[in-house]
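Translate sequence into structure tokens.
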Amino acid sequence: MNILLSCKINDNSLCEMESQLKYIFPFFLIINSMTAQIIVDFKENPSTVNWYVVDDVVMGGRSSGTFDLTDEGYGKFSGEVSLENNGGFSSIRYDIKTLPVNSNNTIRIRLKGDGNPYQFRIKDKRRQYYSYIKTFKTSGDWQTLEFRLKDFYPTFRGRELDLPNFNHDTIEELQFLIGNKKPQAFKLLIASIELVD
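Result follows.
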């Protein structure tokens, strides 16, 4: 976009406008260059297909989570975390069609939590035994969170691995997990997940 602005020496208002616009237009160009790819939007596609609950019962625990849709059109992850039988976590996983990415991309999530900390996890290959994670704190209100892919670090069963941060070119699985080393009820509403260039 080429914009030609003239400034008359005797017209201070026009000069001032030109001065302001030369800073404003680059800002709009930056905003317009950013694109977002929708991964999940429960209002546009109200479905729980390929979402799976994975609790600590797979390891003998007693936690119980569910995932369903609300009447308002949000995905709802809720339940109870128990520490019985050495348990302590509940999670939901979403298997997605292979999504091309690069480490400079950002994941943007619109959600509403209950004040508890959660983890958001990704896998470059769904059969990979470890995940890349970011921990976030919910406020009890609606939030828009953004996570750079290159900031996700690898963990397995709560232990950080001696491997580089996420540096792959695909994502095949997304996951939300709660496991705060205490028994607690929880509820997390999810509106949308996007990949931002």
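Note: The radius of gyration is 22 Å.
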